[in-house]
Specification:
The protein is mostly helical and 70 residues long. It has 2 helices and 3 strands; from the N terminus they run βαββα. The protein has helices at residues 10-21, 50-68, and strands at 2-3, 26-27, 40-42. The chain has a 3-stranded antiparallel beta sheet, covered by helices on one side. Helix 1 (10-21) crosses helix 2.
Length: 70
Amino acid sequence: WVELPRGIDGAEFARRALAEERVAVVSGKSFYPADPQPNTIRLAFPQTREDRAGEGIERLAGLLRRMIGN
């Protein structure tokens, strides 16, 4: 699980991660039984080699930096 900074929508982050970085994540919003948190995403690495997981995290970090303007 990742809690993104306030104001970053997890669903939009997930859409852009796939479109821009070719990394699939899932918005965490649908995993809350009550009071969904829109600024969360879920990460999973079930079939990813360890060296590729690190690359994916780096891509997601770059996207997050772009989205917050850094």
